[in-house]
């Protein structure tokens, strides 16, 4: 009787488990910052706000100087990262905010395979911690997009500490300060500011912190909460391949900095900048805790870690710098689309290297698929970066990038880029830059290089014909 029970078990173990593939499948951790400017990290040239833990990924791995996202704002950028496609290919063009997050039909289409789904089907345990922002209705829950575990929130933003904002300095946007005037109003640890001309969005309305499918109450600083959950995820799943998508909402508004971190930056006179510095410092400390957990679990050589931002920084809103780039979040200039991008895989990727060829957040899908042993899906826009990074393949991963969001659009083709930010008709709406010589996009060559403008515009129209109308 025992033999009859044992034989099927041995058979299953022998034929269902591939020990070699199991040993070769690396863990994959994607650390996604929110609204972090291109120029804000120490390794990106910022001497004001120390980010030693994030910088260590560049020192021990690779830093990419021409990394792009698929949209200049949160939601369509995440759609591109998680599907490996230009999001307008499947109609994901715009950035839902507020109550629109819960509209039926507003979210990542169920027909689109996510990176979590692909890795789950390769035997990975998959977890999302942090910000989702790919649909708040039931059809779009992370569980229905391949994640085994979810802890976070569904909409575009969340307060780091709920009212009465204990233990933090809070700076909120207002149309007017007390007395009906403009400027700043400061009372102890609460600041009102009219610098943007509108009120702070209602981030927490119908947007609870959720564990799985149930709301929970958290009073700790949210960056620390997400790190706590991520450390637990790594600890619980260290014995098998896992995919952790840790999507911080730092340094996205609302501006709330912990008092301990505010004290560290007392020399920064502008309190607006000081709160941002505190938030970024807290994010860096959290990344340090993730790296410490990976190391203590002896997973350094088994884990690919990627750090990037979802789009450029909104400078006027947060003070986040995109220097030396032009523009900010929402813009089709480089400041909206080019982001800090770091990658570490101890013992596999060379340490301290700078990779200067253009890459995209979409490449994380194709790269992860290849590392997991999955058959590469059809119709991806991303590329497997590993052969290029390990110098097994010559050339560059990409020669062109396409962007469209309403009347704003752009195309990069080789060394050249066209940008449309205004509503002029026809070719007159487009600007032309030789991006490799003019990183700050200051010298518009549209008039003197009509031939190059038409070449890129023709290609943009060809690619645009492949895209679908906006879903919402």
UniProtKB/TrEMBL annotation:
Keywords: Calcium, Hydrolase, Metal-binding, Signal
EC number: 3.1.6.1
Protein family membership: Belongs to the sulfatase family.
GO molecular function, one term: arylsulfatase activity
Pfam family, any one: Sulfatase
Signal sequence range: 1-23
InterPro entries to which the protein is assigned, alphabetical: Alkaline_phosphatase_core_sf, Sulfatase, Sulfatase_CS, Sulfatase_N
Species in which this protein is naturally found: Gimesia panareensis
The keyword S-adenosyl-L-methionine appears for this protein: no
Keyword Calcium: yes
Every Sulfatase N-terminal domain range: 26-373
Identification of the protein by name: Arylsulfatase
CDD domains per the UniProt record, alphabetical: ARS_like
Gene responsible for this protein: atsA_33
């Amino acid at each position: 009787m025992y033999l009859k029970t044992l034989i099927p078990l041995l058979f299953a173990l022998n034929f269902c488990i591939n020990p070699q593939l199991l040993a070769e499948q690396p863990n994959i951790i994607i650390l996604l910052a929110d609204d972090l400017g291109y120029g804000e990290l120490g390794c990106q040239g910022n001497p004001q706000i120390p980010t030693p833990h994030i910088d260590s990924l560049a020192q021990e791995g690779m830093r990419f100087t021409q990394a792009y996202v698929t949209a200049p704002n949160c939601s369509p950028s995440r759609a591109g990262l998680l599907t490996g496609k230009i999001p307008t290919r499947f109609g994901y063009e715009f950035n839902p905010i507020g109550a629109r997050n819960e509209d039926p039909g507003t979210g990542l289409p169920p027909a689109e395979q996510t990176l979590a789904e692909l890795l789950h089907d390769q035997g990975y345990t998959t977890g999302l911690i942090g910000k989702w922002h790919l649909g708040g209705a039931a059809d779009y829950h992370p569980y229905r997009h391949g994640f085994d575990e979810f802890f976070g929130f569904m909409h575009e933003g969340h307060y780091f500490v709920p009212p009465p904002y204990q233990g933090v300095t809070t700076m909120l946007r207002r149309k007017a300060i007390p007395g009906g005037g403009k400027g700043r109003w400061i009372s102890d640890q609460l600041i009102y500011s009219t610098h943007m001309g509108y009120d702070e969005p209602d981030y927490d309305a119908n947007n609870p912190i959720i564990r799985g499918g149930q709301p929970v109450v958290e009073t700790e600083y949210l960056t620390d909460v997400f790190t706590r959950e991520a450390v637990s995820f790594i600890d619980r799943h260290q014995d098998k391949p896992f995919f952790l998508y840790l999507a911080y909402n730092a340094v996205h508004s609302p501006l709330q900095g912990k008092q301990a971190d505010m004290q560290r930056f007392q020399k920064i006179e502008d309190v607006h900048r000081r709160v941002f510095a505190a938030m970024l410092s807290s994010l860096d400390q959290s990344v340090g805790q993730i790296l410490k957990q990976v190391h203590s679990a002896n997973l350094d050589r088994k884990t690919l870690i990627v750090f990037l931002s979802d789009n450029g920084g909104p400078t006027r809103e947060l003070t986040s710098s995109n220097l030396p780039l032009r523009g900010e979040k929402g813009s089709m200039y480089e400041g909206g689309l080019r982001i800090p991008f770091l990658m570490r895989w101890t013992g596999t990727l060379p340490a301290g290297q700078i990779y200067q060829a253009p890459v995209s957040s979409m490449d994380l899908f194709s790269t992860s698929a290849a590392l997991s042993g999955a058959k590469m899906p059809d119709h991806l826009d991303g590329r497997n970066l590993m052969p290029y990074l390990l110098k097994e393949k010559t050339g560059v991963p990409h020669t062109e990038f396409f962007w469209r969001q309403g009347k704003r659009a752009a195309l990069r083709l080789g060394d050249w880029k066209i940008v449309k930010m205004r509503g002029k008709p026809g070719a007159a709406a487009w600007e032309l830059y030789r991006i490799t010589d003019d990183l700050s996009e200051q010298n518009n060559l549209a008039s003197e290089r009509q031939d190059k403008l038409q070449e890129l515009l023709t290609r943009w129209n060809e690619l645009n014909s492949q895209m679908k109308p906006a879903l919402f």
